[in-house]
């Protein structure tokens, strides 16, 4: 039933949003201490995210469902290609970052080996604003990739039509929250970046006059 699917997703979104919020992180830091927070929070968050994601997927899979529309091949193949493009975009969006640092492995390992911690509240050092590659086309390529993957699922069912609507809305909300967070840290640099590069719509970048002019010069 779509209602159960929506409830499962909303619980997942609430838990995920809570654990990435500054208020929750500061509360945990007070509880376990700043050093342990920088050393272990990111890894703990990664493990928790995997658990709640896997649980949500499992629970949604157990919800009774029925097909509303199964498209012909000439529709489903292009849709699958767009989904593949989304996966490739997500992989490209991760490339500029240290995967072990992103997952929290480096922070925990360094603390256990030396007892030292560094960086922000999650032990992540200040990273320069990434504006090249896919980040030069949209500011939030990971969220755009997620939208493409969910939105272009060719088979429409009672459950997945609700799931894709909620997931896409959550990605849009996440891009808004991330813009606010970066604006506080990067200031003027991020303001200029926002003016130059769209949040999620690559067509805005494609049809910008300066990019059309650059393409003509090639």
How many angstroms separate the termini? 53 Å
Helix and strand run: HHHEHHHHEHHHH
Number of domains: 1
Number of strands: 2
Mean pLDDT across all amino acids: 88
The general outline is globular
Oligomer class: single chain
Query: Per DSSP, what share of the residues sits in E-state strands of 2 or more residues?
Result: under 5%
CATH-scheme architecture: Up-down Bundle
Major sheet strand order: 1-2
Determine the CATH topology. Four Helix Bundle (Hemerythrin (Met), subunit A)
CATH class: Mainly Alpha
Q: Sketch the major β-sheet.
A: 2 strands, antiparallel
User: Would you identify the regions where 5 or more consecutive residues have pLDDT less than 50?
Assistant: 214-218
Describe this structure in words.
The protein has 218 residues and is mainly α. It has one domain (2-217): Four Helix Bundle (Hemerythrin (Met), subunit A) (Up-down Bundle), CATH 1.20.120. 73% of the residues lie in helices and 2% in strands. It is built from eleven helices and two strands. It has helices spanning 2-20, 22-32, 34-62, 73-94, 99-103, 105-114, 141-151, 158-186, 188-196, 202-206, 209-217, and strands spanning 67-69, 156-157. It has a two-stranded antiparallel sheet with strand order 1-2. It is globular. It starts with a helix and ends with a helix. 16% of the residues are buried. Mean pLDDT is 88; it is low at 214-218.
In short, what is this structure?
With 218 residues, the protein is mostly helical. It has helices at 2-20, 22-32, 34-62, 73-94, 99-103, 105-114, 141-151, 158-186, 188-196, 202-206, 209-217; strands at 67-69, 156-157. Helices cover 73% and strands 2% of the residues.
């Amino acid at each position: 039933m779509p209602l159960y699917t929506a409830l499962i997703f909303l619980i997942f979104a609430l838990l995920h949003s809570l654990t990435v919020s500054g208020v929750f992180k500061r509360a945990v830091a007070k509880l376990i201490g700043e050093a342990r927070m920088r050393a272990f929070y990111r890894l703990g968050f990664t493990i928790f995210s995997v658990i709640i994601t896997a649980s949500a997927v499992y629970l949604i899979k157990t919800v009774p469902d029925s097909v509303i529309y199964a498209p012909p091949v000439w529709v489903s193949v292009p849709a699958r290609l767009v989904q593949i493009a989304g996966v490739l975009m997500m992989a490209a969006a991760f490339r500029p970052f240290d995967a072990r640092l992103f997952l929290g492995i480096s922070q925990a390992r360094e603390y256990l080996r030396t007892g030292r911690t560094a960086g922000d509240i999650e032990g992540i050092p200040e990273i320069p604003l990434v504006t090249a590659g896919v980040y030069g086309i949209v500011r939030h390529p990971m969220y755009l990739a997620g939208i493409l993957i969910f939105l272009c699922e060719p088979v429409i069912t009672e459950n997945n039509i609700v799931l894709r609507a909620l997931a896409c809305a959550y990605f849009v909300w996440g891009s808004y929250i991330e813009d606010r967070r970066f604006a506080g840290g990067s200031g003027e640099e991020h303001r200029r970046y926002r003016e130059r590069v769209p949040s999620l719509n690559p067509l805005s970048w494609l049809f910008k006059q300066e990019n059309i002019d650059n393409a003509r010069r090639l």
